[in-house]
Amino acid sequence: MTGATIKRQLRTGRSVWADSPGLGVPVRPLKQAVSVDVAVVGAGISGAFMAHELSRDHSVAVLDRRPPLTGSTIASTALLQWEIDLPLTVLGERIGPAKAKRAYLRSRAAVDALKRIVEAERIVCGLKDKGSLYLAGDEYGHRALEVEAEARAAIGLESEYLGPAALRERFGIDRTGAIVSQGSASGDPARLAAGLLRRAQAAGARVYSRVEVLEAASDPDGVTLLTDAGHAVRARTVVFCCGYEFPKGVPTPGAKVISTWAMASKPRQRCPAWLRDTLVWEASDPYLYFRMGGDGRVIVGGEDEPTPEAHEDKAKLRRKYRTIAAKLKRLLPQVEFEIDYSWAGAFGESATGLPSIAPVPDMDHCWAVMGFGGNGITYSVIASEVVAAAIRGGADPDADLYRP
Fold this sequence. Notes:
Layout: E1 4-12, E2 34-41, H1 45-54, E3 60-64, E4 79-80, H2 88-95, H3 97-121, E5 128-135, H4 142-154, E6 159-162, H5 164-171, E7 178-186, H6 189-202, E8 206-209, E9 213-219, E10 222-227, E11 233-241, E12 256-265, E13 278-282, E14 289-292, E15 298-305, H7 314-331, E16 337-349, E17 356-359, E18 366-370, H8 376-391
Helix pairs in contact: 1-6, 1-8, 2-3, 3-8
């Protein structure tokens, strides 16, 4: 791994976010039966956004079989993008141009909504506005990216195509082309989720952990959750926010769980100045993605594999971070970095790159949220808006985009 030094104390298998300050979320055991308006199953980032939104005008209980934040949230690299895994032009071929336009514009609006929530609630999570650099790769080359940039600009999204000369001049990267976009962000996903859960608790929500839901039984008036604590939770509505763990009985056509790897450098690494304000990813399969944290860490990931168990292989983790580091070094040979953390996790994909946010079939009063795709945090915002609209008796105008 030319140009990178492996620390003897490398924190292998541990996410950089696990050591973030301010992750405390008060939890309680389930010692008696509980009745609430809404039960949210899952205390990760999607459950946190859901609880935060619904606790404004409903009684809410959050249940998790693990401590809060310890699922897929802690494994995120937190590139808070509005760009969807599938380019706008390709998504248009899959679901139609009109729906693809709506999906992209809604994703862009969700990033803006996320920023407003963090500001209004004064959540300290290192949130920072970022641009995005999407590099031509082996899946979509420079011609495809040029067409993509034009399509985005035509619907009002801030995107500009750069040819190879302009790309080298502005970023020092040798590729055949790229798209520069504005309006994304980055942050600490664990501190964001913890802040949202604490704000929900301040509004009256209760977080129960460790409590595993064993069975859900719906009836015309609501849902009863049977738990391993021996006490039931009764709710008018249940929302399953289980990350990339598919709830039993929930259809997920075209979706699959894969494995991904990531690492973070020591703080205050020497990098190009532009990297402090830019998220980078490439149009390749598997693709490389990286950014800089507020403390000067380089956070980089990729090397996805299409199996849900591969990330559990500890021996593979060392091989993966060497491969990822070598790819980054080839792309930015001037960057010197010392690896501090490396980790792996599960990750969900769908046929369209869009999430599934929908009622559970044959279970009245139940919703399931599955944030497929590379921008799961952005989709968590959308899920909280879609589900909340339905619970309040309305209908989100884009709800149809996220039905499986």
